[in-house]
Amino acid sequence: MAAMTQTVMAVLVQVWNLVRVTLVVPLLRLAIFLSLATTVMILVEKVFAGIVSLVVKIFSLKPEKRYRWEPMRPDLETGNLAYPMVLIQIPMYNEKEVYKLSIGAACCLDWPSDRMIIQVLDDSTDLTVKDLVKLECENWKSKGVNITYEVRNNRQGYKAGALKEGMKHDYVQECDYVAIFDADFQPESDFLMRTIPFLVYNPDIALVQARWKFVNADECMMTRIQEMSLNYHFKIEQEAGSSTFAFFGFNGTAGVWRIKAIDNAGGWKDRTTVEDMDLAVRAGLEGWKFVYVGDVHVKSELPSTFKAYRNQQHRWSCGPANLLKKMAMEIMKNEKVSIWKKFHMLYSFFFLGKIVIQTATFIFYCVVIPVSVLVPEVEIPQWGVVYIPTLITVCIILGTPSSIHLVIFWLLFQNVMSLHRIKAALTGLLDAGRVNEWIVTEKLGNAHKPKSTDQFKDSSNTQPLINKPKTTQTNIWQRYYFSEIWVGLFLLSCGCFDIATRRQGYFIYLILQGIAFLIAGFGYVGTYVPGS
Predict the structure, then answer these.
(1) Which of 56, 80, 177, 206 sees the fewest Cβ atoms within 10 Å?
(2) Among this protein's residues, is 126 annotated catalytic?
């Protein structure tokens, strides 16, 4: 019996050696080559964007210097008619914790009340929340604010459908521009005064995008890590896109559009879950310019539960990939913009920024590197494992220098999220599964509650009126994330194998990354809310 067992084991070893040499090794070498090539491409893109943003900062090339900008003032003869008519759209869906904040901030904008219409687009299915939002609008209306409360009979098209429906009302025909704020966004009172002049004095500008500022960045480690990534996005990526090709992706909120440009681009479309990016790409192909104004900050809330963050990242990763699939040929055939702008859209904006960076991260750091430990015939050059990833990380972390001590945690968490992002990106490219799934990001609202009584004109109107949901029981499939757990166990196994064989020396990274996956898989990331 023992002899037979030894014979079977010997045969299995021979088969494995044959498969490894003839199949695994060539495929792994190809994967290493592609992974190294994509990391170099990502590094070049990061360095280019960093140089552009650095030049803008050193030479103070602010938008006010590149475009005409003059402060808005009432005319002696026409009075407030010198101010253009502005529509403020606030789409919301069951925003029980934050609905008063966005409405209150919008109603306190420094702009003539007769030249501004605030439109609350409420798609709420919770009748209690719906009544409270309507009551809030009526309260502000009784104070002389020009605010309307609009509802639909269905949620078709989700946010895009609500925005599109909102534009159909007769009073919108009076407006020249539309500012959009999600329910948890709180613009400063001078928001319109600082953004509208770009549109008034520059007829070729379609969009003015402000920067997000996060009120709950210090709530937990996960929100700190999100802040680091989003600060890089705004400070570096959006700045570079605005300064070079006058194009970038609209962030869906905290921006002002020229209504004529929206109509010219075909209006809001709900064919993907990134209606904001869809509109921006179509407007860009029509030749319109975009301006990012980094000095204008709009307060908002980061998702602080892991479940909410995963849902948000699914939408942000799946939507762009699906949009690329639907618009690639349209971009290539476009004759209204230069070939360089089309190249920027296809290569830098979509291929690298939305596809490669989502897939290469997981494949290289969570598949190729650990598998190479198991295959002695394959080695990854040190510059590809250490130097280039370090340079990419440095480029990103410079967006938030105050959090540089968290860089290791940021790196490990990004690799954990890469699993979710690659699944979402593939879903979008294949147009399958959850491709059109839209789950509104949960806002807890705690960090948004004003600490002083003078934040708004009526501070009593900024407190949520309904309590937190009661604790509910969740089963094991909802409480734990098994894909993260399995990847974590795989990485830990490879790390232990590396220790036993003393081959590559990757065990420190593999064990730390494996532990990070397990921590996320068991739900010990972010703020825990019972029933969430």
Answers:
(1) 80
(2) no
